[in-house]
Amino acid sequence: GVNFDKYDDIPVEATGQNCPHHIESFQDVDMGEIIMGNIALSRYTRPTPVQKYAIPIIKSKRDLMACAQTGSGKTAAFLPPILSQIYTDGPGEALNAAKASGQENGKYGRRKQYPISLVLAPTRELALQIYDEARKFSYRSRVRPCVVYGGADIGQQIRDLERGCHLLVATPGRLVDMMERGKIGLDYCKYLVLDEADRMLDMGFEPQIRRIVEQDTMPHKGIRQTMMFSATFPKEIQILARDFLEEYIFLAVGRVGSTSENITQKVVWVEESDKRSFLLDLLSATGKDSLTLVFVETKKGADALEDFLYREGYACTSIHGDRSQRDREEALNQFRSGKCPILVATAVAARGLDISNVKHVNNFDLPSDIEEYVHR
What we know:
GO terms for molecular function: ATP binding; hydrolase activity; nucleic acid binding; RNA helicase activity. Belongs to the DEAD box helicase family. The chain is α/β, with parallel strands linked by helices. It has 2 domains: about 5-255, Rossmann fold (3-Layer(aba) Sandwich); about 275-375, Rossmann fold. Helices cover about 40% and strands about 15% of the residues. The chain has 16 helices and 12 strands. It has helices spanning about 5, 30-40, 50-60, 75-90, 95-105, 125-135, 155-160, 170-180, 195-200, 205-215, 235-245, 275-285, 300-310, 325-335, 345-350, 370-375, and strands spanning about 10-15, 65, 115-120, 145-150, 165-170, 190-195, 225-230, 250-255, 290-295, 315-320, 340-345, 360-365. Helix 14 (about 325-335) links the parallel strand 10 (about 315-320) and strand 11. The chain is globular. The two termini are about 20 Å apart.
């Protein structure tokens, strides 16, 4: 579970003009009966540092650039205040536009959707995680979240969208596809979130992101409210923040570009020829039931290491870019459930994953740069 005592020691710095005061409890800010009830149902008892600061900032309708690690509670920092505002304001013009679109097409089920909030994420796994949280926080409300991502049946996603969409979670490539097909319009998007923004740039999504955000129909900065979340703050992210955000508040949770405060790090020098043997020693010491993530650099390396561990009697699975989406989701489900407590992964395939109860992360192959190490 979450170690709240360690969380309380994490330094947080908020800078910007007229920065709202942080909260100590979810009850310190009025997010309405539905949200407060769903927070309780989700068993959130105390806000994490990023939630303490981000929730009142977002509720104050300020733009936000937040630097915080995966696993720090970012999703529950932006979804509740956004959904709270949607509940307060209602669908407004977006609903009328969707109805008009349906009438033009002569059939209710073929109408174009105009989400009020858009959350962009780098990977389908992260998009699904955010979508699941959105469903929790929108429980017993009329707000309908949807998710679209590449590698899945687009027809099924379109049919789901046509049932109505107020909050859309999307990967950039699939969203561009949906917009080109005339299934999504961003004309009435009031709330824009870029989650794991540095990851999206690392994966080459900047052209798609700019195409989405800078199109004529998207409300301009200052009209919409924009929030960016990133583990690191390199120059490319600074430029994106300058272009997309208006008079934003900068929030730094922990040391920017550092690893999580809750992690103990160990470095062991091992000859290449001895790495497999040493990994077996580590796995033996940690126990076969402890969730362990092992990073490798190549797809071929992931397959080879999974096969080696299987032959050594370890229940393990792997994910990498050549695996089908169904295979990857099955592998993640087996890992989360503990059926296969060892997951061998390439960094690209594991981007944006936030899996609870992982006890050990082994860098079988070291990453090429410090940012990659921080994300792992």
